[in-house]
Amino acid sequence: MLVAPAVLVSLACGRGPRPLAEVGGRAITLAELSAAVTVQTGRPIGEASTDLQAALFEAFLEEEVVLAASGDPGDRNLPIGQRPSRCRTLMASLCAPPPPPTDAEIDAFLARRGATAALPERIRVRQLVLPDQATASKARERIRQGEDFVSLSREVSRAPNAAQGGAIGWVERGQLPPEFEAATFALADGGVSLPVQSDSGWHVFQVVERRAAGADDGSRNRTRDEVMSLALETARRACLRGLAARVGVRVDCRDVAFPCRNPFEDRT
User: Fold this and answer.
1) What's the structural domain count of the chain?
2) Per the confidence metrics, is the pTM higher than 0.90?
3) What is the pLDDT of residue 256?
């Protein structure tokens, strides 16, 4: 369901009856969310899908929780463009990473998954997410000229894991959106894609490694990476829930069209 333009404009201008949420005593308005969506996607909030609006709202609340938990009042007033980098720094100090998986945990994971047939063709991919095509093209050229991908990711990318180099991990055919699959599976090892547009911005992909269908070398190492990725996400979510409980989060978005929930409450 789409909200009427007049209602959306009214809410975005701060004339709605209530804020979308309150984090650490600070009200979050639709005007702020609209500005964040524009920075992230380069488009007005009304042009983003409702699912994307919901995802960006939850990401905005996560940033608010981390900034509220920092203890520095100045963090709550950062410009929108500076928030992601500051939040990554704060998360590293506020949330301890989990320990590496043990051999027993890897064995248990493999046992739960069970024996599998020969693996399909797959590639290990990382990405940059940029605000526009021109910026993405410049970043791609810098990589092709030999600049370090991880360093460039930390400098310019807007991907959620930009500080870690933008790794997507191992993917098989059919797991990526068609436009992403076409751009990545055509690349050789080390290849860099042309910019590809999505609702989140412009993506530049690099294929780090490729394995042909049926090859199963290093499966245990890939499983170790998979288990560690799952543990990192679980630890991140648990830490955010703890921080949210500490600073206080209230969500009230009855006046918006996108699916809205408190991301720090357990789903039942």
Assistant:
1) 2
2) no
3) 83
